[in-house]
Amino acid sequence: MTTNPKPEVIASYETYFNQTYFNHMEKIGSTNWRVTMKYLPLIAATLLPLASPVFAVTHSDTDITADVMSHDGVAGTIRVTQEVSGVMVVKIDLTGVSAGEHGVHIHEVGDCSSTDFKSAGGHLANGMQHGVMVEGGPHPGDMPNAMVGEDGVLSVTYFKTDLTPEMLMDDDGAGFIVHSGADDHSSQPSGAAGSRIACAVLVAPR
After folding, report:
1. Rounded Cα distance, 139 and 177, in Å
2. pLDDT tens, position by position, for the chain (206 residues)?
3. Any idea what DSSP says for residue 204?
4. pLDDT tens digits, residue range 154-163?
5. CA neighbor of 69 nearest in space, from 117, 139, 130
6. What is the DSSP string of 71-118?
7. Are the beta carbons of 109 and 205 closer than 8 angstroms?
8. Residues contacting 102, CB < 8 A, separation 6+
9. Hey, which residues does 142 pair with through a beta bridge?
10. Distance of alpha carbon 113 from alpha carbon 106, whole angstroms
């Protein structure tokens, strides 16, 4: 995000520039234009490091990587980052997943303690309905199904414009779940995607 400088910041830079310029001219004892042009690059080089932070592009601090846990041989990581555009990028890299389509979701609680992973709660909903095929959907935690081949590798990247760092970092944190089957993107409350075969704690409850 590019931040425009405040008026008082601009004024302070202008004042500093003027003072620096006139002090310099007093020292060299000349108001000759050619002399002025000769030394302007030096003055600009002095001021530029001071001004740069005001116009600097900053990136979000959101960069979460979590290992998945499973009772079915699934292993790997999920990473969630926020890019300078504000879009959240979810990258999932897993192995040992059975072939076929699998529902993958961000869930409302950062807790994988129960054997069925239901301790992660429901989908991260933020007041929305489940699925892209229903009015009022989808959940911010909804993502397209992941297709897995015979090699058991699940490797996908999703761009999420409806997910925010604040949703992940609330009091109960956030979790990630891989389901045994495909999400139908319409059934309430979670797409009839079957049992939970893998879980990761993205952000632990506070």
Report:
1. 14
2. 444 444 444 444 444 444 544 454 444 444 444 444 454 444 444 444 443 333 233 345 789 999 999 999 999 999 999 999 999 999 999 999 999 999 999 999 999 999 999 999 999 988 888 888 888 878 989 999 999 999 999 999 999 999 999 999 999 999 999 999 999 889 888 778 999 999 999 999 98
3. -
4. 999 999 999 9
5. 117
6. SSS-EEEEEEEE-TTS-EEEEEEEESPPSEEE-EEEES-----STTSG
7. yes
8. 145, 146, 148, 154, 178, 179, 180, 181, 182, 193, 197
9. 105
10. 16
pTM over 0.90: no
Cα separations in angstroms, 113 against 2, 28, 70, 110, 204? 42, 74, 11, 9, 11
Axis-axis angle for helices 33-55, 7-28 (nearest 10): 150
Of the chain, the end-to-end C-alpha distance in Å amounts to 29
Report residue 46 as tokens.
């002095």
Q: Which structure tokens are listed for 145?
A: 């199904």
Which amino acid, residue 74? V
Tokens of 52: 């740069």
Q: Is 3 exposed, middle or buried (0-12, 13-18, 19+ CB in 10 A)?
A: exposed
